[in-house]
Amino acid sequence: MDRELGLIYVRVPTYRPFRLQVYCNGHSWLAQRMRREGIDFAAADNAFARITDFARAQELADTFKPELLHRHLDRYAQLCCPVLDVFGQPTTGASCRPNTRPTWCSRAKILGSLYQQLAREAVLSVKAEQIATFLGKKITPQLAAEIGSRLSTRIEGTCIKHKFGSVSIKIYDKFARILRIETTTNDVSFFKHHRKVEHRTGRTTREVAPLKKSIYSLIDLREILLGCNHRYLEFLSSLDDHSSGQRLLERVTQSKPDGDRSFKGLNFFDSNDQALLRAVQRPEFNIHGLARCDLMRRLLTKRPRDCPASSAACASSA
C-alpha cells in the first residue's frame, strides 16, 4: 500500500535481466489525493460511485505526471532489486496496460433499461469498419489483424468488447450502477503521433511515428485513448433510445397508490380500458375540458353492465 499510489503490485523475477513489473491503478492514486483535499467520495471496487466535487477531482487527475511515476519506479527498483547497482542497469518504466476510462453514475433503474438497449444496438450495429474508426485506423487490403465484437456477462456486469488486434474498446455496466467506457492496449506502438525520431545516422526529425513503450508516452497516449472513447460515445449517441418510452409505459400500466386506495393501471388489451381511452380522446374535451361526469355518461351509455369497472377507471383517470 503505497502512500502516493495506493494499492500496487510489484512482480520481481529471479533471473536476469531482472525486469520488474509494477502494476498500479490511477483510481487508487486519485483516491489518495482526494482524501488529502477533503473531497468526500464513495468507491465501488476500482470505480467511484460518488464524488462530491467532481470538477476538482478531474483537476487532480490531470496533474498526474510521468515524472512522479518514474520516481516511484526507481524507488521500488532499488528496494526490490538489490543487484541493480551490480549490473548497472538503468530503469525504464514501461506502461503495461494503459487505459482511459470515463465513467458515469446513474440511478440503477434508469441505467438498467438504457444499457439493455445500448448493448443490443452495440452488438448488432458495430461493424469492423466502425471499430477501426473508433481507434483512428483504416482497414486496408494489407491489414493482418483480428477485428470483432464479443458479448460477455460477468459479476461486474455485461460487457461489450470491440477488439482490433492488441487494442480493445468496451462498454459495461459496472455493478449495474456505473456506465463505464474504456480503451485498453497491451501494445502502445499500435498508435502513432508526431514526435522526435532519432535516426541511426544521428539525425533527428519530427514525424508521425509509433508511440514508445515508456511512461513518458502516457501524456500523449491519454489524449489518443480519450479520442477513441469520444468517437465511440458519438456513435452510441446516434442510436435510437427506446428506454424513455418503456418508462412512460410503466407509469401508465402500473397501479398507483393514493392514500388507503389504489387505482389500477391501464391495460391496453382490456375492452373497458379501450373504451375509456377512446372516450378521453374525443375532440370536444379540448374545448370545454374533461370532467368525470362526462366520462361516466359516455361509458355507462355504451356499457351499462360494466359500471363498477368503468367507475374505477374514471376515478383513476380523474
How is this structure best described in words?
The chain is an alpha+beta fold and 318 residues long. The chain contains twelve helices and 14 strands. The protein has helices at 26-37, 54-62, 66-80, 84-87, 108-125, 128-134, 218-237, 243-253, 271-280, 285-288, 292-302, 307-317, and strands spanning 8-11, 21-24, 41-44, 47-51, 99-100, 103-105, 147-153, 158-164, 167-174, 178-185, 192-198, 204-210, 256-258, 261-263. Strands 5, 6, 7, 8, 9 and 10 form a six-stranded antiparallel β-sheet that branches. Strands 1-2 form a two-stranded antiparallel sheet. β11 (192-198) and β12 (204-210) form a beta hairpin. The longest helix is centred in the last third of the chain and has 20 residues, at 218-237. It is elongated. The termini are far apart. Residues 92-96 and 304-318 have low confidence and may be disordered.
What's this, in brief?
The chain is an alpha+beta fold. The chain has helices spanning 26-37, 54-62, 66-80, 84-87, 108-125, 128-134, 218-237, 243-253, 271-280, 285-288, 292-302, 307-317; strands at 8-11, 21-24, 41-44, 47-51, 99-100, 103-105, 147-153, 158-164, 167-174, 178-185, 192-198, 204-210, 256-258, 261-263.
Radius of gyration: 29 Å
**Which residues sit in consecutive blocks of at least 5 with pLDDT less than 50?**
92-96, 304-318
Mean pLDDT: 80
Percentage beta strand: 15-25%
Query: Distance between the terminal alpha carbons, to the nearest Å?
Result: 62 Å
- Total helical elements: 12
Task: Name the overall outline.
Answer: elongated
Structural class: alpha+beta
Percentage of residues in helical conformation: 40-55%
Task: Note the main sheet.
Answer: 6 strands, antiparallel
SSE pattern, N- to C-terminal:
EEHEEHHHEEHHEEEEEEHHEEHHHH
Can you count the beta strands?
Answer: 14
